Amino acid sequence: MPYRSSDKTRQKKDAKRTAMMQAAVRVFAEKGYHAATIRDIVAAAGVAIGTFYFYFPDKETLFVHLYEETADFLLQAIRQAISSRATLPQQIAAGLQAYVNIAVFEPAVIQLLLVGGVGAVPSLTVKQHEFREKLVQIWQRPLQNADTLIAPQNTQRTAEALVGGFDEVVLGLLRHPEAGSQAGTAVQELTRFALRAVGYTGS
Amino acid sequence: MPYRSSDKTRQKKDAKRTAMMQAAVRVFAEKGYHAATIRDIVAAAGVAIGTFYFYFPDKETLFVHLYEETADFLLQAIRQAISSRATLPQQIAAGLQAYVNIAVFEPAVIQLLLVGGVGAVPSLTVKQHEFREKLVQIWQRPLQNADTLIAPQNTQRTAEALVGGFDEVVLGLLRHPEAGSQAGTAVQELTRFALRAVGYTGS
Amino acid sequence: MPYRSSDKTRQKKDAKRTAMMQAAVRVFAEKGYHAATIRDIVAAAGVAIGTFYFYFPDKETLFVHLYEETADFLLQAIRQAISSRATLPQQIAAGLQAYVNIAVFEPAVIQLLLVGGVGAVPSLTVKQHEFREKLVQIWQRPLQNADTLIAPQNTQRTAEALVGGFDEVVLGLLRHPEAGSQAGTAVQELTRFALRAVGYTGS
Amino acid sequence: MPYRSSDKTRQKKDAKRTAMMQAAVRVFAEKGYHAATIRDIVAAAGVAIGTFYFYFPDKETLFVHLYEETADFLLQAIRQAISSRATLPQQIAAGLQAYVNIAVFEPAVIQLLLVGGVGAVPSLTVKQHEFREKLVQIWQRPLQNADTLIAPQNTQRTAEALVGGFDEVVLGLLRHPEAGSQAGTAVQELTRFALRAVGYTGS
DNA sequence: TATGAATGAGAATTCATTCAT
DNA sequence: TATGAATGAATTCTCATTCAT
Questions:
Q1: Which end of chain D has the lower number of beta carbons within 10 A, N or C?
Q2: Contact yes or no for A170/A110 (Cβ under 8 A)
Q3: Which of B47, B43, B40, B23 is nearest to B112 (CA)?
């Protein structure tokens, strides 16, 4: 019996914690790390300042944590989309579609990862590198697997360049209000771009 | 002897102003806009705080100015490299070489443009968009000119993706201390990547 | 036990706020707007600098607010004293007595209104004019009501001159440490002065 | 011969010094002591900052000096106007006319004495008191001389009140752009006010 | 757990003043 | 004499963080 109550408490607490983190993501994404104040965050979450420090040790830790979680979410989504397809063109299209979907429906995720946290917190630099590297690895894998269907190349470098290109286009989409309407075209064009870039000769 | 105004004094002042701006670029590049304090900048320049405000109106104005100047410098270097070559492969190789050279010898330039100023100052957002757009245009031009030698495509989108790809690779280079040694290889690989990506069929 | 918000806490906060405002009035009155620093004010109130900004938006806003409140207090006191009497001589004597009382027992009020804030803040100029005008109106009213008992005259001008005269004498009183002892005489003499000045012929 | 040249030099220097002082009066009058910067003053005088410190030791000293000179000028003008007339009504009218003239044609003088310097500089307080006292004495003298023609009274107190009244009205005039057109009426009304206030029974 | 009043280090900016030329 | 570049103390204000309730 007692543990059930404790369970509920735990759940409640987690719910509040999660709500605060979501509020924080929104605020960080919108204003960037430095311009976002704790007051902004607690206001967005509808709690008091003290409550923030009950759930999180400090601003920087929260931000780094948020960055990691968000990065994992994005990586997982792309990884999952790619791994659920069989051929390289399908993998690229699916991975891109997943990425663009997130950009359109959760722009805060992209904002946080590609804009809000860039060069803001020293302790984040390492995490950022890790994130970039993992992203590259995710895109490099299908290239390695399609070994015989693409041009001979340094797949790591190719994946790096693709990742950068995807980011640039996606950020460009977000700069325009009607991001959603362009998304489909962008995915197609980027897919073709990527296939050419790797020298795909299948079909 | 009413103080010679326009001669050496003038030059000295300009020299000092330039020296201070260079110091500021270094500091901004290293720490990012917010983490860089006026104290950091004047310390790096070896002057007093008041001196900063004698030469510049305020932190933000200086930063925006620096960003613009640096952006113009980079754009000009790449534009110039591209326009001095005749064929697409040469143009791409030359443009990339120019870009990578700056990254290797003036890493602060790339740091300032791609990292230190991202999401830092609201009044900079517009300038950043302009910078990205100009960069895209610079790379789009040779594609348009090589019209018949490349695959049919949305050259604007392609240029966007290339620009993003180049940036990512260059930032990757800077992450490693021995950037210089990798630079040559990176230029070659990126050139081939780009030629494939545009579907170049010349020779 | 989520923190009782509206009870004692509220009252305490208001009390502190009031205490800080009183401290601020003292400091502003003593040093004038510019010479009074936030440090002075918080030192006088026995709190930290941050506390000031928790209660008030900034120095100027507080000062203007203080000025308005103080002006209203003084105006109300004089208005009330005058309106509670029936004849002109009584009205003048009562109004003056009220004014002098405040000067003697709350010299900071007069100091703030007539000295500390003069020419200090641009945004205050309008308030100052309003204050002077209201003061003139207060003294003009009894003159208009005693219409038939005083010399024909521009009562507005007369009231202006009386107001200026009263201020000068009151400030003179405050210049001497034993202001209180002279106060009674001053009220009598000023009353007679005013009655002559309006050409009062009653009795 | 040499002394002639030195003489000219002296004159030139004095001329420049005077020009700078006039510029300073204008600036102090317009902005008040604290808001007026040395840069403002030298800009108004058309010289360099260093030049200021060649002629004057520092800002405060200059201001106090300016205050004294301006006060002397005003006192002398009124004193002179009064002493050149024979009867009390003429004396009051002439003194007021002189005062109002200065207010209309040299508003900076009044601004400096009655507004710009009030409560601004601690070291000025004494000078201000002296100024007020001298002004009171100037107006008290004719009252004492008209001893038998006015009501029995404390002429010092009366003079104080008159001085304050005159100031208030004059400041009121300056608040309106068309000060000049109202000046004549104001002098007449104030003269009558003053004559009534002293209980003048002549004629 | 939750609150929000209180803190104070630190940042940007101003401006009177100095001094080498 | 005259200049104006250079200085740095002092000021206002912000904001992450603490802690008594």
A1: N
A2: yes
A3: B23
CB atoms A193 and B169 under 8 Å: no
**CA C79 to CA C77: how far, in whole Å?**
6
The tens digit of pLDDT for each residue in D111-167 reads 999 998 888 888 899 999 999 999 999 999 999 999 999 999 999 999 999 999 999
The pLDDT tens digits of the residues spanning D85-121 come to 999 999 999 999 999 999 999 999 999 999 988 888 8
d(CA D42, CA D45): 5
Residue B26 has pLDDT above 50, yes or no: yes
| Angstrom distance, B182 CA to F6 C1' | 45
Q: Looking at the predicted structure, is the pLDDT value of residue B2 above 80?
A: no
Tell me the two tokens of residue C103.
Answer: 């000067």
**Can you tell me the distance from the alpha carbon of D178 to that of B121, in angstroms, rounded to the nearest whole number?**
48
C35 CB less than 7 Å from any atom of strand E: no
Nearest CB neighbour to D197, from listed C35, C175, C193: C193
Q: Which of A34, A164, A168 sits opposite B169 (nearest CB)?
A: A164
User: Across the interface, do C168 and D164 touch by the CB < 8 Å criterion?
Assistant: yes
Q: How far is CA B120 from the centre of its chain?
A: 17
- Region A25-37: mean pLDDT is 95
Question: Which amino acid does the sequence have at B75?
Answer: L
Closest residue of A to B174, CA-based? A129
Q: How far is the CA of C56 from the C1' of E2 (A)?
A: 25
Residues 15-34 of B with CB under 7 A from strand F: 16
Burial of C63 (0-12, 13-18, 19+ CB in 10 A): buried
Instruction: Report pTM.
Output: 0.92
CB burial of residue D131 (10 Å; 0-12, 13-18, 19+): buried
How does the average pLDDT of chain A come out, rounded? 93
Q: Which two tokens stand for residue D103?
A: 């207010």
Domains of chain A: 1-56 (1.10.10.60), 59-198 (1.10.357.10)
Q: Which pLDDT score is estimated for A82?
A: 98
| Positive or negative torsion for Cα D131, D134, D139, D140 | positive
The mean of the pLDDT values for chain D is 93
- Listed residue (B120, B126, B129) closest to B60, CA to CA: B120
Burial A15-25 (b: 16+ CB within 10 A, else e): ebeeebbebbb
Integer Cα distance of B79 and B134 in angstroms: 10
Residue of A125, A193, A195 best to disrupt the B interface, most CBs of B under 10 A: A193
pLDDT tens profile A159-184:
999 999 999 999 999 998 888 899 99
Task: Please state the rounded mean pLDDT for residues A118-125.
Answer: 87
From chain B, the residues in CB contact with A164 under 8 A are: 164-169
Residues of B in contact with A112 (CB under 8 A): none
Which ranges of chain C have pLDDT less than 70?
A: 1-7
Q: What is the C-alpha to C-alpha distance for residues D25 and D47, in angstroms, rounded to an integer?
A: 15
Contact list, C158 vs chain D (CB under 8 Å) = 189, 193
Q: Which two tokens stand for residue B151?
A: 């695959």
Residue with tokens 């950022």: A128
As a rounded value in angstroms, the CA-to-C1' distance for B93 and F12 is 54
Dihedral (CA of B185, B187, B191, B197) sign: positive
Q: How confident is the model at residue B5 (pLDDT cuts 50, 70, 90)?
A: low
CB contact under 8 A, A192 and B153: yes
